[in-house]
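Propose amino acids for all 314 sites.
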């Protein structure tokens, strides 16, 4: 049994979905943001399903973003499961947060972002006040089974987040997919620091496309998503999203035809009315398109003496 709970968020994305999963155990998939309004909606939804907070034995996180990982604190008796990247945020790891800021400052410099925008480093932390503040009890990874839920397994679907996993039931051909595939909008592959500081910047768009193709190869008939309605035309939607992403990349390819441009310069052209308000999201989108063009052999990268990268057509 899958029971959908719709929780309000203070974010532009709007409501977020959590799911009660009833099997041999009662589990909650995602826990909304840590706000009073989300708590009330969570409590009401669980009650409407015939349960209380104390009945929930396990909480599974699709990823660490604050609209999904907030009210794990409301279930102190439940075990919390998720990708190990979640813990860096849930425990407010001070070493990671220092590395996090240094990572983003380095990215802004190499992207050619003017110094007066460097204060965005702090905004990249996201509203951690909306996150839960207890560590994972159990880490999960690709291929693991969900305790108490025969037939359910973990699928790693990185891209939108470095912690992102989905939950798959092969016999029923259904997936609980977090923010990986949404009905109305494409998820933004966000640039986030890697779990291993020595690993280099994750290429989130390429990760995301690979995760889309992974789901495309599976006989998924329905996805219970993190926002909005369930997705039923899964394969058709994925093909459409991949085609649109290619088209967006080719728009960037045309921009760099006459002269090499920095990530910031491309971002200004792609998002002239919103880049200042949503610098982190728009830079992530631009970096994704450039990563795609580089991987396809359609762009070349050069670096100046102060460490700023520019991109031209190959």
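Proposal:
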């Amino acid at each position: 049994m899958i029971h959908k709970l719709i929780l309000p968020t203070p974010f532009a994305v709007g409501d977020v979905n959590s799911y009660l999963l009833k099997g041999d155990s009662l589990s909650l998939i995602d826990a909304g943001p840590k706000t009073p309004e989300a708590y009330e909606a969570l409590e009401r939804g669980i009650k409407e399903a015939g349960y209380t907070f104390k009945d929930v034995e396990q909480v599974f996180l699709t990823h660490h973003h604050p609209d999904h990982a907030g009210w794990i604190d409301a279930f102190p008796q439940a075990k919390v499961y998720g990708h190990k990247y979640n813990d860096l945020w849930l425990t407010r790891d001070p070493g990671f947060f220092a590395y996090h800021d240094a990572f983003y400052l380095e990215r802004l410099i190499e992207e050619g972002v003017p110094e007066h925008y460097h204060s965005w480093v702090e905004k990249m932390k996201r509203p951690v006040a909306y996150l839960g503040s207890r560590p994972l009890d159990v880490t999960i990874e690709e291929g693991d089974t969900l305790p108490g839920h025969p037939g359910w397994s973990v699928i790693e679907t990185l891209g939108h987040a470095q912690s992102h996993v989905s939950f798959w039931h092969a016999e029923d051909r259904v997936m609980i997919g977090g923010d990986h595939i949404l009905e109305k909008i494409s998820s933004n592959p966000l640039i986030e620091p890697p779990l291993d500081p020595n690993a280099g910047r994750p290429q989130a768009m390429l990760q995301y496309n690979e995760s889309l193709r992974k789901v495309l190869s599976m006989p998924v008939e329905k996805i219970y998503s993190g926002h909005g309605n369930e997705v039923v035309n899964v394969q058709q939607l994925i093909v459409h999203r991949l085609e649109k992403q290619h088209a967006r990349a080719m728009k960037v390819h045309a921009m760099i035809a006459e002269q090499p441009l920095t990530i910031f310069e491309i971002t200004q052209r792609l998002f002239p009315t919103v880049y200042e308000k949503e610098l982190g999201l728009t830079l992530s989108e631009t970096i994704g398109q450039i990563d795609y063009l580089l991987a396809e052999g359609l762009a070349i990268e050069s670096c100046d003496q102060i460490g700023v990268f520019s991109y031209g057509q190959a």
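The mean pLDDT is 95. The two ends are 52 Å apart (CA to CA).
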